[in-house]
Amino acid sequence: MKPPVSTHAQWPARLRWWAWVALLLTLPVTSFPYFPVWAGLGETIVRPLALYPLALLLVLDLVPYLLRGGRLPRITAPLLWFALVATVATAVALLGPTPDLRGQTPPDRAFRAVVTLAIGLSFYLTTLRMTADWDAARRSIRWMWIGVGIAVAWGLVQGSRLLFRWPSYIPINAVQRLLSVRDLHLTRVSGFAYEPSWFADQLAGLALPFLIASVITGFHLFTPRRGGRILEVLFLAASLLVLVLTYSRGGLFAFVLSAAVAWLALLGFSRARAPGGDRHAPQPRKAGRANLMVRIGGRILLVAGVLAAAGTLLSRSGYFSLLWTRLGQAGDLRAYLASVGGGSRLALAEAAWEVFEERPFTGVGLGESGFYLLDHLPEWAADRDVEIRSLVVDTSIAFPNPKNLWMRLLAETGLIGVLLFGSFLVAFLLGCLCLLSQGSPRARFIGVAGIMSWVAILLEGVSLDSLALPTMWVALGITSGSIWNLLEARKPGPGTSGENA
């Protein structure tokens, strides 16, 4: 793959492109152990390797572009207002008295949270800039697939160890520790990420949306003569297998629901565009109907086979099978969630909601919710959940966090912040729906992928609360860049269409 050809193809442009490629290739590495001490990442587990190429791109591209007065698409307005309001509210909240907690001070937590938000915004705006041109977006998706594909291949090695006890743990763990601060999981696949749920988020929120969009829209980024479709099918199969082996309940649920929502949205727009309705459409011949039934039957059998295989693998995990082995306690939601390992998340979400109720409009400030959560934990939590019990003991050094992005935003930025961030997500969804209404294969491809990423982000936010993980921002940025390109900046001309457009 070569960088996009440009009349200004001088070394700064080439350097920017290859820095962008490096960012895409390193996305799966979320907890890189080797950062300089002055970077201040020693205590945090969110340490994306992609920060290195991101810093280079900020210097070479994004910052100079903004300083020159470069414009941004309208879709970014509520997100930028959210960042401004959240930062101001955090500064105001620090003026009030807040006691230190377990060696953590409010200014330090606030500074880290603001930097985290700045990192997330930088990933998003950089991605948007680098994919606003369709040719660059197409090449970027390919490079992103290569980066995630390497992680998927490594996940298959980990899966082989889980299923067949080969290769042995020690040598592959040594490789894992070169790219992660954490050892390999003994019972789940984590790729290059810190934990399996983060890897599942990379698959369900970024790689699989574009793969599934390619399948259900028929828009392929690789031409058949190069064996591209075979590669896409193999990559899709491997990604689905590795997603199952993460045993991430949130990741699997997010993928299934996001694929269903995107398919229904595409089906609805396809029917709306059908001219004259089905009543006047030419009726297929008997042979055509038979072939259609064979294809439909084959797809049903394929889906049934995939579901059966996934169910067999999932039943091997005692952790995952708790979802149905503990259904007898489903009458009491709290008891059921505690029995399947979700009690701590529910308890922390309840505590974050109470923190929000104390300051409903501006919140307690970015990074500050942890100072209030212990005082608002529900009484039932310590009795039913081991994690909460270990968190509240006097000897604990763990700093609490909501473990839920949406509850965290409510507690830390209040209604104003949540409404602004929600407005950005709504604008993003409307842009995806507008792409589906365009009718062109390219627009439908991006629209379907964007809707899948959107649904996955909403669902994954229930169990992830970091704004520094790049997966969400890159997924939103690639689609936002195409929305900008196709709906805002200009209409595609004769010389701007890509493959299959």
Report the C-alpha radius of gyration, rounded. 24 Å
- The helix content, as a percent range, equals 55-70%
Low-confidence stretches: 1-8, 277-281, 489-501
Shape: globular
Distance between the termini: 20 Å
| Approximate strand percentage | under 5%
Structural class: mainly alpha
Round the mean pLDDT to the nearest integer and report it: 89
Total helices: the number is: 19
How many strand units? 0
Tally of domains: 1
Task: Summarize the entry for a quick read.
By secondary structure, this protein is mainly alpha-helical.
Description:
The protein is mostly helical. It has one domain. Helices cover 67% and strands 0% of the residues. It is globular, with a radius of gyration of 24 Å. The N terminus and C terminus are likely disordered.
Question: What descriptive keywords fit this protein?
Answer:
single chain; 501 residues; 19 helices; 67% helix; 0% strand; disordered C terminus
Describe the secondary structure blueprint for this structure:
Layout: H1 11-25, H2 51-67, H3 77-93, H4 106-130, H5 134-164, H6 169-179, H7 196-217, H8 228-245, H9 249-273, H10 286-315, H11 318-325, H12 333-339, H13 343-358, H14 370-376, H15 379-384, H16 386-392, H17 405-438, H18 441-460, H19 470-489
Helix pairs in contact: 1-2, 1-5, 2-4, 3-4, 3-17, 4-19, 5-7, 5-8, 5-19, 7-8, 7-9, 7-18, 7-19, 9-18, 13-14, 13-17, 17-18, 17-19, 18-19
